[in-house]
Amino acid sequence: MRVGLFVTCLIDAWRPQVGRAVVGLLDRLGVPVTVPAGQSCCGQMHVNSGYPGPALPLVRRYVRAFAGCEAIVVPSGSCTAAVRHQHAGLAAAAGDETLRRQVEEVASRTYELSEFLVDVLGVTDVGAYFPHRVTYHPACHSLRVLRVGDRPARLLRAVAGIDLAELPDASQCCGFGGTFAVKNSAVSAAMLADKTAAVRATGASVCAALDASCLLHIGGGLSRRGLDVQARHLAEILTSTR
Fold it and tell me: Would the pLDDT of 131 be above 90?
């Protein structure tokens, strides 16, 4: 199977270790990964900010970059959601029927990491070892748009040595929401305060999530409050071994 990794902007710029973790994890599972050089942003930020026009070239670039891949793995629920739920609409609105068909075909092969592991590879135990107390924050796009359900939790429960603690009010947004955190900073900060309090209540030393954006937001909030809790991507935990 020819698998392509869509790294995403935030991971490429701020958390490259997540991309490396995904490659290492899949390699350990016998799945070689390519990272197409032509990839760029998914265009989600442009669309959500009301600029669909500038997003269209990014949609075309995504299609070109991953045209030869049998599966595309994305370590981000929000970017996966953009590919599967925004790209076709952008192509249709532009009147480009050929692009719309191409987008739908490529989107059908695009998977968030936990979906790929559980649904495509059929595994939950990836041979990980992580002897720490961990709580899991289900990011909004993965929870409400992709509906990944309990896939991440099933993967985490299979990790040897882990102490998985349930997060109070887990489905509550962390307050990032892309440009929402900038345009509505006071509300965002209040939501973040609730989320960090919930994380603290679990006694966990690690807060896991599927999205680098949530991890940046939550991690920053935990740090500013002086809490000794790391914000880690699911892939970083699953790639850990003895």
Answer: yes
Domain co-membership, 104 together with 177: no
Q: What is the mean pLDDT of residues 106-110?
A: 97
Q: Count the neighbouring beta carbons within 10 Å of the beta carbon of residue 154.
A: 15
Select from 148, 82, 163, 140 the least CA-distant residue to 117: 148
- For residues 231 and 138, state if they share a domain: yes
161 inside domain: yes
Q: Over 90: is that where the pLDDT of 109 sits?
A: yes
pLDDT of residue 212: 92
Between CA 147 and CA 157, with CA 153 as vertex, the angle to 5 degrees is 160
User: In this structure, which amino acid lies at residue 172?
Assistant: Q
Asked if residue 20 and residue 114 are part of one domain, the reply reads: yes
Question: Looking at residue 186, what is its pLDDT?
Answer: 95
Amino acid at 188: S
Strands 163-165 and 33-34: unpaired
pLDDT classification of 48: cutoffs 50, 70, 90 = confident
- Which pTM does this prediction carry? 0.94
Say if 125 falls within a structural domain: no
Encoding tokens for residue 170? 């887990």
How far, in Å, CA of 64 to CA of 180, rounded? 30
